[in-house]
Design a protein that fits this description.
about 190 residues, mainly beta, 6-stranded antiparallel sheet, 5-stranded antiparallel sheet, about 5% helix, globular
């Protein structure tokens, strides 16, 4: 496994070592030991899967508030997505900066997003499956969203008319959100 710089501190794009031959391919999708060596030292407690039927389905920008904030390790196991991470840590040198990474069944890349960031993705193909690990359990009480098209954040999504859930259509703008992340230099 190797890290590809994302330009956003603490957010890591991971490229696994893929071994292929005439039969197909093999790679380690998760290795606690290897991730620790890459600077990702979290204990994942839950795996989540999503399926999106239509190209242009947008999910996000999602996060869980403190004390149930989640770090995520995202991979796309079928199809292709544009995955985004937004720094929501007030006081951070990269506050409200965002990055995007293409994750697909072909490139097998994974994106690590630590606590304090918002997360979202849009499907670039039909019939997409996304798998992500989290280090805190889901908590409806702490579950939050911010509008995908919030101008203060300015994510450049590659779709003009995304397929959205009711939750994402009605998500508040950042200025209306109760996001509570604060950056700390000691981390």
């Amino acid at each position: 496994m190797k890290i590809i710089d994302t330009g956003l501190a603490d957010v890591k794009l991971i490229e696994p070592d893929v071994f292929g031959d005439n039969r197909g391919w093999f790679y380690e999708a998760y290795s606690c030991e290897k991730l620790k060596k890459l600077g990702i030292d979290v204990t994942f407690v839950q795996d989540n899967r999503s399926y999106s039927k239509e190209k242009g389905t947008l999910r996000g920008i999602h996060f869980q508030k403190t004390p149930m904030a989640q770090s995520k390790l995202i991979s796309c196991t079928r199809g292709k997505i544009l995955d985004i991470a937004v720094d929501l840590r007030k006081g951070s040198p990269t506050y409200l900066k965002w990055i995007s990474a293409e994750l697909s069944e072909d490139n097998k890349h994974m994106l690590f997003i630590p606590k304090g960031f918002g997360h979202g993705f849009v499907t670039l193909t039909e019939n997409v499956e996304v798998l992500y690990k989290v280090d805190e359990y889901y908590s409806g009480e702490h579950d939050r969203s911010i509008r995908y098209d919030d101008k203060e954040i300015g994510v450049e999504w590659p779709v003009s008319e995304p397929v959205l859930s009711k939750k994402d259509k009605n998500a508040p703008f950042l200025c209306e959100s109760d996001v509570d992340f604060v950056w700390s230099e000691s981390k």
